[in-house]
Amino acid sequence: MDRRNFIKLTAITGTSATLASCGNPEHQLIRFVPDEDLVPGVAEWKPSVCPMCAAGCGINVRVMEADVETTRSGQAGVVKMAVAKKLEGNAKDAISRGGLCARGQASIQITYHPDRLTHPLKRTGARGTGAFKEITWDEAIGELTGQLDALAASRDQKSLAFLTRPHRGRRTALAGEFLKAFGAPAPIAYELFADDVLRRANGISFGHEQLPTIDFARSRFAISFGADFLGTWNSPVAQSVSYAAMRQGRPGVRGGFVQVESRMSLTGASADEWVPVKPGTEGVLALGLAHVILANKLRPADAGRAGAAIDGWSSGLPDYTPARVEQLTGVTAKTIERLARTLVEQQPAVAFVAGPPLAQTNGLFHALAVNALNQLLGNVGQPGGTGFTAGSTKDEGRSLKSDTLASAKALLLDGANPVYDAPKAWKVRDSLAAIPFIASFGSFIDDTSAHADLILPDHSFLESWVDSAPESGSMDAVPTSAGPVMKPLYQTRATPDVLIEVAAKLKTPVALPWKTAEDVAKSAPAAASAQSAISNLQSALKYVAPAFDGEASQYPFYFLPYASLQFGDGSSAHLPWLQEMPDPLTSAMWSSWVEINPQTAERLQLAQGDLVDITSSQGTLRAPVMLFPGIAPDMVAMPVGQGHDTFTRYASGRGANPIAILAPATEPETGTLAWAATRVKITRAGDGDGRLIMFGGEMREHPHEHETR
Amino acid sequence: MSAASSNKLTADLLRPLLETSWRFYALVVFLAGIVLMGLGTWAYQMFNGFGVTGINNPIFWAFYITNFVFWIGISHAGTLISAILRLVNAGWRRPVTRCAEVITAFALMIGALFPIIHLGRPWLFFWLMPYPSSRLIWPNFRSPLVWDFFAITTYLTGSVLFLVLPMIPDFALVRDHTTGLRGRIYGALALGWQGTPKQWHRLESAMSIMAIAIIPVAVSVHTIVSFDFSMAPVPMWHSTMFGPYFVAGAIFSGIAGLIIAMAALRKFLHIEAYLHPVHFQNLGKLLLMMSLLWGYFVFAERLTIWYGNGSAEIAVLRVTQKGSFAPLYWTMVVVNFVIPVSILSIRKLRTITGCVIASCGVLVGMWLERFLIVVPSLGHKYLPYSWGVYRPRPVEIMITISTFAAMALLYVLFSKFVPIISIWEMKVGEQETHETALQRTSRVLGELHP
Amino acid sequence: MAHKWGMAVDLDLCTGCGACVTACHAENNIPTVGPEQAARGRAMHWLRVERYWEGDFPDVRLKFRPVMCQQCDAAPCEPVCPTYASHHTAEGLNAQVYNRCIGTRYCANACPYNVRFFDFFNPQWPKPLHLQLNPDVSVREVGVMEKCTFCVQRINAASIDAKAEKRELKDGDIKPACVQSCSARAMAFGDLNDPESEVSRLSRSPRGGTLLEDLGTLPKVTYLERQTQV
User: What digits encode the pLDDT tens for the residues B18-48?
Assistant: First the structure.
């Protein structure tokens, strides 16, 4: 061998020997063979549906390859997978029309959340301590099947309860079929900000027990009674698209809009005119407008069934003169006259109501009043007015009340979190303690699933078959379904598939019309004619003052827990982008706060950030003060969404939960929680301790404009 | 002067070099400890990321830039005293010149560290230097920070020369008075100085040239530092007055620093015989003049802004004078203006102690002034939504304190190894002719350009 | 003719919903700094929705204004950067070159719009949140400045596609993440050198103006004022 070759050989062997001995075997990751065809650097776009609210916005997902750490047959390694990178609205979708809200954008973080559950789990310690161990799917399904078999054996099928959120599409239909065939009652569908009062009113007034679709794009004037239609109510993306067309979509024509509420919402900020009103009197104002129109014969008086639901309609609403309405609502008679005339002059004009007005004990009255006003204005089912999407089915489910879970012996949790978002007075946590077996399908441990005995984690929506049949948002909406945009990252399983498998494995198998989650998603919703009979009112309603929990002398402030733009009812508080997103009206991040009128704060000697105790008849919570000019001096408001005991590292133990001090007042006709009917008192609890985090500095553009030289 | 007094002078001024007490070691250890803690803190900052400071959005400059401007300001002591007083041949400068020049050199070195300390990626600071880079890109010569680089390196080079040149005869003196290793070191430093007329002549010429050259450099340095602020469209930074204002403030703080340094030396090195109350009186008069000048600048600027009523600037004015910065602002006014003017304009109070009290106040006040230029403006720019608040963190405070310790340490070490009062100049002073500065200068220049 | 990219924001349409802010985070790998750092003023919202209250209850109004880098033609952040990390491109963008930035933060001080942000620490993405990162956008390291780029990665991608298909870019081919996500269609992006483009048209609107116009920065975002209903 000559010298050159010797050197080469030594170099090669020396280097490889060195490299081979570099690093531990544990640090050498095995690269598994990918099971997809991937073109590096080239994105594919795949359709899906955003699950963050019931609007059902169609989205497109950008999918590209990435190295994913995974375990196969006990071996840790990496594999190239096509994964979701970004969500955008699908331009062709009737609801989103290419737009996507903040919660929708952030929903991709569900799939990649560091605290997402990756395997089935079985509880090892006491309930609520978070002590779980990983088990296999066979064990999990076996456990669940065993529990259901035990119920069947003791003829206790009726004690099986399935708790979910409303409007979750075909998966609830599957659950319903499963429960029916098993012999259990229908699923319980609960969410805090349910619009059931509005649906009932629409059923009474128009024969559609359904959320309305407002045609802003062709409207000349809109008056919203408390509805945060650009932020959190109903179908915000579709409504924003339509609103934009109302404002600047028609050359030379700009639709006007007035917001009537007691606390300025995100939507209220965009109004041409913001009309503060006493809480629980919004319907009175609507009828005051109707009175002016009727008295001046500006429109034909007949308002059909909607008018008949209002006591005194046929005699021209004598109890709702501008003077009387001013007395009750605080809105001046002059404003009432002016707005009424505008409604008639700017045709088509449309009115709608949602949110805090309907969360009062007299909520149904306000909804019926606004419906009557719409009928009077002649916009129902017309361009520029209020209408109802075809083909929508009513959600057949039971509602959650304080005693609903009392007789349950087994509870299946599918995404609902009532320990967090039901009032403490309903004692949901105590009910859970009395239920022998609780299983959860959710992807996270939250305040409710922390009490589960068995966890069978679902895929994230990007890994699932999804479907939507929008109840409102666009007259062109049709039911859609879409497949997974990426393969599952973990050992999770689609809950529909789990239910189907359990159904087949029961000692007495349950027959279901679907074989896979894909079948479920693609199946057509039941025909529209299955709508339940329209309930009629016993008698026409008249205005009854709202009942508030707590005497005004002891509890001087109205308490308004409002749906948060970032967290909704708290269900997206675990997403870091949303925690860090500055709240549009206050610029707060990672915080809870209570909004107080600055004059009130000065009177109570409260500075920005100071801590206060907010006390109702149900309890106390502590939060920092946020000076908020857009709220009535006798009201305080808090966003819902923080204050989780348990909800991943980003939301656990953060802030305060306003639902915890809500009184269990209800709207009598529907039985839904009247979440705006609590009164509170405020006491100073100390100087600010830094828990209020804000992105914005000064809240006025010209801070000293009122000072003279 | 007589041989006896000459020998006494030599002996007195060489004593610090030749005799060392335990107090010296204790002081050095104490100061070095603080300096090491500062260096360690800086390492901690580099390792963990700049986020360990209190800097945030929108206040992206705070303590470090304040310190930068402050120390560069202090460095103007030497120039004024040494160069100007040399040129006007003010006799009382003689014991003072080296004390002052040393302050300049060390303050510059410390000040020049801060542009590096405050960088997000300080290991790349050398990109500020114009060298032929393989990336084919030069520094952005339009940037005031690059002007800073040139200005400070020029000034540092000049000041070090200005300091070291007149040290040569004194090194020779020490060489002649010591033996062994020490003698050899000082011998090397003396560069073969034998005190021939030709060498004296060359030294004299060089010093006159440096004295003339260093003055515009000093004026331009702090003007360029002020351009770091005035070239940015930030409310109350974008001021036409900043150049002269900063130079005046620099001289002001420099004199204060000098007074304190001299008073300390006088006490600890027992050189009362050489630093007389009249020296302090004269420096005190200069300090008074600078205090009045400083007050004039501040008043002119703020009155103009108040009348102008520009909303962004008024917001800054308001927050500084009435808002959250008001305690610092009014403290600054008191210690920079009210107290110094009160003490220094009354002859009876213009003692060494009086001057030192006034000077300490001025140092505090001038540091506050830099801080109040930097932070309130950055916290209140044009869009109120983005206004913010700054709180210093331990990292910044530690590093700030350690620079004061570093200055003291360098000064103490210097006075151990080099006579702090220029011995030969003192002797010359005894014998000087009545040649005027002008005559001397033209003689020197005439000789250079026949 | 070379493109000159600009934007228009119609404040009569912007509802303040913040979808644009979240979309920007998702598109541009912007770190979530967490509550402690957010409390210390280090949150990095390249695009923010400013809110200003006017008046007092009951005559109270709230205004929103989305503010992103204005890509000024006379950008004050450019002359002050000692290393040319902030410089102007041929298509009118103010480019921030992360590799060249040494973190003097002078540009952030000089920017009157406060749209420049600094990486105070190395960004962390607890696994597997890192899988969401956009491979077309650099992830920045500690010590550098960053800001809105008008989604330059989308501009580049569209330009490359157009070049490959041998056609010109059409108005609407490029939508930055914020523009795309906005349901109220409040934002527009396009070529100011094309007089027929939507953004050119909007920039000529009588309702249009620029932010801090008197400072002479020549920003390339036109804001259309909210209208009042007569």
Answer: 888 898 999 999 999 999 999 999 999 999 9
Q: Where are the domains of chain C?
A: 5-224
B133 vs C contacts (CB less than 8 Å)? none
Q: pTM of the entire structure?
A: 0.94
Nearest beta carbon to residue A697 from set B311, B314, B388: B388
pLDDT band at B434 (very low <50, low <70, confident <90, very high): very low
Q: Domain A557-694 has what CATH class?
A: mainly beta
* Chain B: residues touching A (Cβ < 8 Å): 309, 311, 314-315, 318, 384-389
Q: Which two tokens stand for residue A557?
A: 């402030």
**CB spacing of B233 vs C217 below 8 angstroms:** yes
- pLDDT given for residue C144 in this prediction: 97
Any chains having at least 3 CB pairs less than 8 A from chain A are B, C
The reported pLDDT for the residue numbered A13 is 53
CA closest to C40 among chain B residues: B56
Chain A stretch 263-322, residues whose beta carbon is closer than 8 A to a beta carbon of chain C: 264, 266-270, 272-274, 276
Which one has a higher pLDDT value, B16 or C52? Answer: C52
Taking any CB pair shorter than 8 Å as contact, residues of chain C touching chain B are: 37, 40-44, 48, 50-52, 67, 76, 79-84, 100-106, 108-110, 112-114, 117-122, 142-145, 212, 215, 217
Which of these, C64, C63, C31, C62, lies nearest to C46 by C-alpha position? Answer: C31
Does the pLDDT value for residue A33 go beyond 90?
no
Cite the residue boundaries of each domain of chain A with CATH code 3.40.50.740. 121-192+397-462+495-523
The amino acid at residue A20 is: A
CA distance, residue B48 to nearest chain C CA (Å): 7
A190-202 pLDDT tens trace: 999 999 999 999 9
Per CATH, which fold does C5-224 belong to? Alpha-Beta Plaits (3.30.70)
**Residue A23 confidence (pLDDT) above 80:** no
Report residue A530's pLDDT band, with 50, 70 and 90 as the boundaries.
very low
Query: Residue B309's closest chain A neighbor by CA?
Result: A709
Contact flag C76-B232 (C-beta cutoff 8 Å):
yes
Tabulate helix, strand, coil % of chain B (nearest 5): 75, 0, 25
pLDDT digits (tens, 9 = 90+) for C76-129: 999 999 999 999 999 999 999 999 999 999 999 999 999 999 999 999 999 999
Assign a CATH topology to domain A121-192+397-462+495-523: Rossmann fold (3.40.50)
In angstroms, the CA B40 to CA B42 distance is 5
Task: State the span(s) of chain A assigned CATH 2.40.40.20.
Answer: 557-694
A196-387: CATH number: 3.40.228.10
Residues of B with CB below 8 A from A696's CB? 385-386
Weakest mean pLDDT among A6-10, A168-172, A230-234: A6-10
- Quote the mean pLDDT of chain A: 93
Got the DSSP string for B373-425? HHHHHHHS-S-GGG-------HHHHHHHHHHHHHHHHHHHHHHHHS-SS-HHH
How far apart (Å, rounded) are the C-alpha atoms in residues B179 and B186? 10
**How far is CA A674 from each of CA A282, A283, A546, A656, rounded to the nearest angstrom?**
15, 16, 10, 20
Cβ neighbours of residue A154 closer than 8 Å, sequence gap 6 or more:
none
A651 has pLDDT over 50: yes
Distance from CA of C201 to the nearest CA of B (A): 27
**Structural tokens at position A584:** 């549009």
Cis-peptide into C58, omega within 30 deg: yes
Q: Which residues of B332-371 are buried (b: 16+ CB within 10 A; e: fewer)?
A: bbebbbebbbebbeeeeebebebbbbbbbbbbbbbbbbbb
Domains and CATH numbers, chain B: 3-448 (1.20.1630.10)
C84 chain-B contacts, CB cut-off 8 A: 137, 139-140
